[in-house]
Design goal:
The chain is of the alpha/beta class. Helices cover 34% and strands 30% of the residues. The protein contains twelve helices and 15 strands. The strands form four sheets. Strands 3-2-1-6-10 form a five-stranded mixed β-sheet, with helices on both faces. A hairpin with a 5-residue loop joins strand 8 and strand 9. The chain is globular and about 65 Å long. The two termini are 23 Å apart.
Length: 364
């Protein structure tokens, strides 16, 4: 089983592992107010990951231990997350009359196999009942959220934190943590409106279409901030770099797709190369939205919510709005959570804190 996916643990820390860095937060809570006690990052060398997969878990464990010691952070429990690309998320309708034991047997031993591309004995599964509804034939059903990941992946994460002498209280999916951090923002949408989370991470973008706080559709696209930074560097005859600070300091110039395609622009080669990569991401996003709407034509896409280290690039929201005709805005979990912080956090960095803050919330 995924480790206590839907349970509430004791206090600890949230740790997000990305191909570029570790993100670590520790929160406290008084009444309904959160306070950010610690917010630190640690760079990871590129030798730890290969094609998005962890190949040196021991190096991650060592970095976790060294970072906690350096910042004098004490914790024994941790909430962490698997990337969406390593996970399977499905909504399953089941007969309402099933009791808990029958439901568990039906999901784990029958239904799950219909949705898994791997043998059942190679997969860890958890599930949560969401609510009741009537189907087209008037039959009472219960909606169940199924989450699955390959056991070798969950075992890898368990090994990393065991080496670091930390207990995993929560092992969930990145999109769940992100949704938790902006749940107040998601409440503005009606049951007939969908929000699209566009989580632009280091080397990938995770797309999740969310209705009433529940991911209905998810997809992973191999375009992230690293690919944008590399396109920018190559066009400016600079060496490749894993540091995306230059990218985060830029402001996107809005140029029509027609002018960009014909080369009739007054922008520099670096910006033109960046816009080309962003255009490819927009095309993938449009395909995902259209695919989902073809199945659920009764819904309206109300807004794009931009997250991740690439979500705060200057005017990237205007670029997406112009190209897709849907309002877009970067998330701001600091404001959404009314988070009490020791030092001001720049707006460009705030969208990249969504996942790790959502993890930290599970450890309060």
């Amino acid at each position: 089983m995924l480790n206590n996916l839907f349970s509430k643990p004791s206090q600890g820390i949230g740790i997000e592992i990305t191909p570029a860095k570790l993100n670590i937060v520790q929160l406290s809570k008084q009444n309904e107010n959160y306070k950010l006690l610690n917010n630190v990052t640690a760079e990871l060398p590129d030798s730890i990951f290969e094609e998005g997969k962890i190949i040196d878990p021991a190096a991650i464990s060592e970095t976790i231990v060294a970072t906690l010691e350096e910042h004098k952070i004490k914790a024994t429990g941790v909430a962490t997350a698997l990337p969406m690309r390593d996970s399977i998320i499905r909504l399953i309708p089941l007969p309402q009359e099933l009791d808990e034991e029958e439901m568990r047997d039906t999901i784990l031993n029958h239904e799950a196999a219909l949705y898994l591309p791997y043998p059942r004995d190679e997969v860890d599964i958890d599930y949560q009942k969401l609510g009741y509804f009537q189907d087209e034939d008037g039959i009472d059903k219960v909606q169940v959220l199924l989450v699955a990941t390959r056991r070798e992946v969950t075992d890898l994460y368990l090994d990393i934190f065991e080496r670091a002498e930390l207990n995993i209280d929560v092992l969930e999916i990145t999109s769940f943590a992100l949704i938790r951090a902006i749940k107040e923002q998601l409440r503005q949408f009606t049951p007939n409106e969908a929000a699209v989370l566009v989580d632009i991470e280091f080397d990938t973008t995770e797309i999740a279409i969310v209705v009433e706080g529940v991911p209905q559709f998810s997809r992973n696209v191999p375009i992230g901030a690293y690919q944008m930074q590399n396109a920018l560097s190559a066009a400016m005859n600079l060496p490749p770099s894993r540091d995306i600070q230059q990218l985060q300091e830029m402001t996107i110039v809005n140029v029509s797709s027609e002018d960009l395609a014909t080369g009739i622009t007054a922008i520099n080669p670096g910006m033109a190369a960046l816009l080309k990569v962003l255009g490819e991401l927009v095309d993938e996003l449009r395909r995902s939205i259209n695919f989902y709407l073809n199945q659920r034509g009764d819904l309206e896409i109300a807004q794009l919510l931009l997250a991740g280290p690439g979500g705060g690039i200057g005017q990237i929201d205007e670029f997406f709005t112009q190209r897709l005709g849907v309002p877009a805005s970067p998330i701001d979990p600091i404001s959404s959570l009314s988070l009490d912080v020791k030092q001001e956090i720049p707006k460009v960095l705030r969208p990249g804190l969504g996942v790790v803050l959502g993890l930290g919330m599970r450890e309060v």
